[in-house]
Write a structure and sequence with these properties.
- With 135 residues, the protein is α+β, with helices and mostly antiparallel strands.
- The chain has a domain at 49-120: Lipocalin, CATH 2.40.128.
- It is built from one helix and eight strands.
- The protein has one helix at residues 2-20, and strands spanning 49-52, 58-64, 69-73, 78-83, 90-93, 96-100, 104-108, 115-120.
- Strands 1-2-3-4-5-6-7-8 form an eight-stranded antiparallel beta barrel.
- A hairpin with a 4-residue loop joins strand 3 (69-73) and strand 4.
- The chain starts with a helix and ends in a 15-residue tail after the last strand.
Length: 135
């Protein structure tokens, strides 16, 4: 019986140890982030202005050489557009022409339909008549 008694004691001890692991424990499963889950990094290129356009398209611009050129970042390619004229609102290269306004842009490459309705930042509600917009 002493051997059987020791086996019962060992089995009881093992059961207690295993059942202790069944309690509620807060385990950090994802070692690279906080408890709030995974946080996505911004997809916007550094030092670039984001324009949100019609049809869910996005383009990004970086001004170069004091405004003499812009670096246009599209989903499928990047290219430099040099200033056309002296007013500083049109940039182009070949058939590609970018027209800039205060906070808007239109891109036309001559071959496909133009990218229109591009605005910087998130759309803000219009200010009531007679009140200036908050910017």
């Amino acid at each position: 019986m002493p051997l059987q008694s020791k086996l019962v004691q060992l089995a009881t001890l093992a059961a207690v140890a295993l059942l202790a692991g069944c309690g509620e424990m807060k385990v950090k499963v994802w070692p690279f982030g906080g408890d709030s889950g995974i946080q996505e990094r911004s997809r916007a290129p550094a030092n670039a202005t984001e324009y949100q356009c019609a049809g869910g398209k996005r383009i990004y611009l970086r001004r170069l050489d004091g405004g003499d050129a812009v670096w246009l970042i599209l989903p499928e390619r990047e290219l430099r557009l040099d200033r056309i004229g002296t007013d500083g609102t049109r940039y182009g290269k070949g058939a590609m022409v970018l027209q800039l306004a205060e906070n808007a842009a239109t891109l036309n490459d001559g071959a496909t339909s133009p990218v229109t309705g591009c605005k910087t930042g998130v759309a803000e509600p219009a200010a009531p008549a007679g009140e200036p917009a908050n910017r």
